[in-house]
Design brief:
This protein is of the alpha+beta class and about 150 residues long. It contains five helices and seven strands. Helix content is about 35%, strand content about 25%. Strands 6-5-4-1-7 form a five-stranded antiparallel β-sheet. A two-stranded antiparallel sheet has the order 2-3.
Length: about 150
């Protein structure tokens, strides 16, 4: 192996390590309406508690796509994609976002997108709200996967 390739691999390893190390101890916020905290990594791991949109968490560890969190007395794992570094409450502002604002933010709406949305005449996100209410128990989902001989993934 030539020296450039060795240097590149070393630099890549250091960069990846720095990114994961930077996440540990970082304050983040739940970016989805509700998220179960798991006892370990994996979708079907036992649920130890739930957090809601905007909950402040501290990242304790990162394992691939999973982050171990602490929020109050709860400690558990969730997919890193459920988190954001952006606060729900504006800095210096003591009022929190309304339920409507949080729901719109959860759908990816910014103030600009919301203004554009309000100009539409026949737009309705009721179907999106209805879909968000649909839940499937982990046991039912696992049964469906096993019955269909599907891969469980991570």
């Amino acid at each position: 192996m030539d020296m450039k390739r060795i240097f590149f691999i070393l630099l890549l390893c250091l960069t990846v390590s720095a990114v994961f190390a930077q996440r540990r101890g970082e304050t983040m916020y739940v970016a989805v309406r509700s998220v179960p905290l798991k006892a370990s990594t994996g979708f079907f791991a036992r649920t130890v508690g739930n957090l809601t949109y905007g909950a402040q968490v501290t990242v304790l560890a990162v394992n691939g796509k999973w982050a171990q969190l602490r929020s109050g007395s709860l400690t558990g794992w969730t997919a890193s994609s459920n988190l954001t570094s952006k606060r729900v409450v504006a800095q210096g502002d003591t009022r929190s976002a309304s339920a409507s604002e949080m729901a719109m933010a959860g759908k990816g709406f910014s103030e600009e997108v919301e203004r554009e949305y309000k100009t539409g005449k026949d737009l309705n996100y009721g179907a999106v709200d209805d879909l968000e209410k649909v839940t499937v128990a982990d046991g039912d989902l696992l049964g469906f996967i096993d019955e269909g001989h599907l891969a469980r993934g991570e």
